[in-house]
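Bug #77: duplicate submission created two jobs. Keeping one. Sequence:
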Amino acid sequence: MPTFPTPPQNNRIGFHYFPDTSHYRESDLFTWLPELKTLGASWLVLDTPSNRSIPEFFINGLIDNGIEPILHLKLGLDNPPQKKELDLLFNNYARWGVNYIILYDSPNQKSSWSPTDWSQIDLVEHFLDRFIFPAEVAAKTGLVPVFPPLTPGGDYWDTAFLRASLQAIERRGNFFVLERMGLSANAFAGNLPLDWGSGGPERWPETRPYKTNPGGENQRGFSIADWYIPIAQAVLGESRPLILLHLGSSHKDGKSTNSDQQSQVRRILGMVQALAGPTPGSKNIPNMEDINALPPEVLCGNFWLLCSEPQSPHADQAWFLPGEKGSPRAQALVRWHAWADGTAAPANQKSPLPQIQNHPIPHYLVLPAFEWGITDWHLNAARPFIRKYRPMIGFSLNYAFLAEQVTVVGNTDQFPEAALDQLRNSGCKVERINGDGTSIATQLAEK
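Kept job's structure:
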């Protein structure tokens, strides 16, 4: 298998960003980059508009911090894009350092097609008539075109659709695309055991499309890679890199059937451990499902969903909501990194915060956030300080305990002194900058 790009510190842990294309402002980057870093994310899936680019500063901000962006361009199957538009879009992204772009979404579902197109005799060929063109444009600009995620099972059984698609691309002679193409898969786990379907068709040879024999297992779970990778090997004679999507959700719409938070955290940590592989402090990690590491062809697994607006139908699945502290899943993942690195106290500690011996963040700048949002004034006032010290920037104290030095901008109403004392007790050096607007700007500029 050819070598495909990965981020500098690839632990294979990633997230889906907002489930829309409206959160690519500078303030959004400042807000969510610290959360991604504290979660140890090295990949981020971005829903990508087809009529404009995600801003360059947003892409660069992720890459500069060791996070590999994965663009998901959900093109409409009934409205093929124009070459001129794609050339401009893809060339910009390639020039900015993007590597991966997923094209289309769930073409094995009836809802993705018009009634007329869905009724065509050879649906796979009709899909490839739409897929090959943007995939060629992407490959020629240096991007890795990624075959779209299919709905596991689906109206057209996903493993059959994938096999037929790879066979057809090879039969058409589109080797330029084929050699550069990656795959993606929706690893919905639902409430199934995380090792459901593990071993793939070699272990479950009686499983066939549209049917699972009693006592048998199939691809519709977290171990979907064990089914997709053999298909690529059988058709192409070699593996393809695989990007896993929608980890931690059970359905295409992101809804979960598991309401038990403790069980949910345990499953999340099991998935994380399967992605990251053996770690120095694994023996200290509590309440985690034991599962083998995922195969090396899996580039990353992306959890659903990093963040969402409160009014969104996906809000109950978000690990964060704007202005609120992280969910139990987020807090557990931060602790997992401390345990896995061997830098946290054993799991039976009574402290609500992991006792970190090594602070992985050198400097953390905390700016105030309000119910209505974040002020441009604070961001502008902090620019000289940011240019000089290059701190990580955040808007809450949730993960400031990971920093060696913490600079807090705001009064005791915004950041109570008791909270800062808790940071000091965890070993952080804490400084508060307070006063009126002019005083704050002057103090930051003079530091």
